[in-house]
Write a structure and sequence with these properties.
With 296 residues, this protein is mainly alpha-helical. It is built from eleven helices and two strands. The mean pLDDT is 89.
């Protein structure tokens, strides 16, 4: 396992050292997040963290000797997701265009899976949905990265450490620049990238456990494995529909907004939502029949 820990250290250092360089690039090319409206940060913030996450994952995938058969598919789809998100950061794209590319990237990574067609279709919708859900919860410093880190560590129950640990190292290296004193934001390129990688790697990790499993059982498994981002997004969309608003209309009604508006400091919000995310993931693992608390 030494190479795995070595690669994890390398990806962590890439995130830690590469982020300030990406910040400088974002400032040079004016890729900035300006406060105003629903955005409550006080100063202009460079959106450079996504570039570090994408380049770090891609370099790891290229130089580790293929730690999993799924990695080339995920790295290719992740590149599509990041480029679309990065373009959206520079010049907003129509939502339909983003959705089409997200579905294409999800289909690319799911199609090689040896599962029935209906399961492929369900996984495609879930990955595309999770890709966007991670973006929608990226409304507080450190939240999206913390959720991703928890997902990576919990996924060691079903997935290979050779795939998840280096990803966790990369995320942790970037997190130190995003929390508690943010120096950069993820941008849409970074947050959608994290959602895509998490959901794609989870799909490849769990597919041996979903053979001969019914639709509703798999749907509940995916709901729980989507965790806080997916559950929070579904709740927000349902609330908007019930109040006769567009389900895609942004607002400050997400869980992290509610907790902050109730007076909780950011660190407490991270603990609450991080714990909830861990519980959701544990429930999903149990539905798969996995010994969640005995895997060590």
């Amino acid at each position: 396992m030494f190479p795995v820990y070595l690669f994890t250290l390398m990806t962590f250092l890439w995130g830690l050292v590469g982020t300030p360089m990406a910040i400088a690039l974002a400032e040079k090319f004016r890729l900035l997040d300006v406060p105003g409206g629903r955005k409550k940060h006080r100063s202009v913030m460079p959106r450079g963290a996504g570039l570090v996450l994408w380049s770090g994952y891609l370099l790891w995938a290229l130089f580790t000797g293929n730690p999993g058969v799924e990695v080339p598919y995920i790295a290719t789809g992740a590149t599509m997701i990041f480029i679309v998100g990065y373009m959206d950061d520079m010049h907003p794209l129509p939502p339909l265009v983003r959705l089409i590319f997200h579905l294409m990237a999800a289909a690319w990574v799911v199609w090689p899976l040896p599962v029935p067609l209906w399961q492929r279709a369900l996984l495609i919708l879930w990955i595309a949905g999770a890709t966007n859900a991670y973006n929608l919860i990226d409304g507080m410093d450190g939240l999206c990265l913390t959720i991703t880190l928890i997902t990576s560590l919990c996924a060691l129950i079903v997935g290979s450490g050779g795939v998840w640990l280096p990803f966790a190292g990369l995320v942790f290296g970037v997190l130190l620049w995003n929390f508690p004193q943010p120096r950069t934001f993820l941008g849409d390129g970074g947050s959608t990238l994290l959602g895509y990688i998490c959901s794609s790697q989870l799909a490849w990790s769990i597919f041996p456990n979903i053979f001969e499993t019914g639709f509703f059982h798999i749907a509940f498994v995916l709901l729980f494995l989507g965790g806080v981002p997916v559950v929070d997004t579904l709740v927000a969309m349902t609330r908007r529909i019930l109040t006769h608003k567009s389900p895609f209309e942004p607002d400050r009604g997400h869980a992290h907004h509610k907790l902050q508006d109730a007076g909780l400091p950011k660190f407490a919000v991270l603990i609450v939502l991080g714990a909830a995310h861990g519980v959701f993931l544990s429930c999903g693992m149990r539905l798969l029949g996995l010994p969640v608390f005995n895997f060590l």
